[in-house]
Amino acid sequence: MSTYTRAWVVAERSDEIEQVLNGYKFMRQKAGAKSAAVLLDDVLPNFIGMNVVIVPVPTISAHIRRRGYDHMALVARNFARQRKLSYSPQLIRRSNSVQLGSSKRQRFLNAKNAFAVKGSLDPEAVYLVVDDVVTTGATLGFAAQALLDAGASTVWAAAIARQPLDK
Question: CB count, 10 Å around CB of 148?
């Protein structure tokens, strides 16, 4: 699925990257969101003079309740602030399916109808969808597709870590 035209991943999910991700996702170490934003800032190119809008992949409501925050909204907001870019949580979840532990087929089925867009989009803007971990690409792909279906002309994707499905 190639719904986005450019994509970046900081690193494999291991060592320090894994510690940062696990800390802010599973151990309520909210400050890890700033570290994750710094990692994105170190890897992504400069967007000077471009109308880039940072859009987080929305977290399912059960995880937000458990953590007390939407971890990807925090990362995306911090990254947008660092880069002085627009932040817009325009994607919403239409389902609460969990990708962790799912097969490749199940991940695509889960993500296929998981996203909708609220509000209107600027067709002149570039929408950069940000997620924490990319495994099969299903979540980023279908999130990007939702933005395209709602009127975005250009969608890019970025993730903090890549994790092979068999890990």
Answer: 17
Strand pairing class (52-56; 154-162): unpaired
Sign of CA dihedral 133, 138, 144, 147: negative
SS3 label, residue 36: helix
**Is 124 exposed, middle or buried, given 0-12, 13-18 or 19+ CB atoms closer than 10 A?**
exposed
- Cα–Cα distance, 5 to 125 (Å, whole number): 14
Q: Is 146 strand, coil or helix? A: helix
Report the C-alpha gap between 155 and 52 in whole angstroms: 9
pLDDT per position as a tens digit, 80-103 = 999 999 999 999 998 666 555 556
pLDDT at 102: 57
